[in-house]
Amino acid sequence: MNALQVPVGPEADLPPIIFIHGASGNLRDQEAAFLAPLRGRAELLFIDRPGHGYSERGGAENATPDGQAAAIAKLLEAKGIERAIIVGHSFGGAIAASFALFHPDKVIGTLFLSPATHPWPGGIDWHYHVASTPVLGWLFSHTLVMPAGMVLLDPATRSVFAPNARREAYVEEGAPALVLRPENFRHNARDVANLLDYVTRMAPRYTEIESPAIIITGDSDPVVLANIHSVGLKRDIKDSELIWLKGVGHKPDYVATDLAIAAIEKLSGKDRDLDILARKVEVRIAGEKTVAR
Hints:
The protein has 293 residues and is of the alpha/beta class. The protein has a single domain (3-123, 199-292), classed as 3-Layer(aba) Sandwich (Rossmann fold). 48% of the residues lie in helices and 13% in strands. The protein contains twelve helices and seven strands. It has helices at residues 27-38, 65-79, 91-102, 126-132, 136-143, 145-161, 170-173, 182-202, 226-236, 252-255, 257-267, 274-292; strands at residues 3-6, 17-20, 44-47, 84-89, 107-113, 213-218, 240-245. A seven-stranded mixed beta sheet has the order 1-3-2-4-5-6-7, with helices on both faces. Helix 5 (136-143) packs across helix 8 (182-202). The longest helix is centred in the middle third of the chain and has 21 residues, at 182-202.
């Protein structure tokens, strides 16, 4: 599995931190948000999930979050990381929850950012269904996805950040275009197509998670239904804290990076008042919207 391992600095004050990206992503998505502010403070491990970025897919078991969690657990063992704080964004939240459930001895605490973890009404976008089918999916992914995807990449990434402004350098820094490569696109489609059935089976078991968790979610998320996923995690994980952000969409990792880092600090044992920090984020965002007008 491909990963970027950043060594600990001489004045480190945090335990190891593992970052798990969401659907249509790769390790650079979380690296661009967290590497600079956390460099030296902890050992950092940014992961390309199986079949994403530059990681091989591996076996069929890696088509579900528990299989990907197991692959990450093996990677931690290979890297000599015994326990860590796990950070999961969006689809990565389902993997982070599975990691906490099935590998509790390796978890200090979990930070969920706009997670997708529970059964939701409706389905998924049509292109996931098409790309995940055996023959038509191959043709679709090898002929239409790249040219159409490059045209749509800018508006699509802006819509993921909405209603907040996307960082202008995100398309270069986060490298979302990597998912448009045919095999990556199909692996991503299979992940998404399998998710609803998986979380329907697995969500009732989140009550077994004993490690602490913090959930940060925006009330204006256009991608996942926070009232289902984030509220569900708060309900199901006994030692959990839910932080709502007014006016924030699907990317609190970028829009509220300082708050996310404070949550990591709290999971490591430091005293942090996340509610006060969240209100400061909301004031800043409101001010930015006023200036934008």
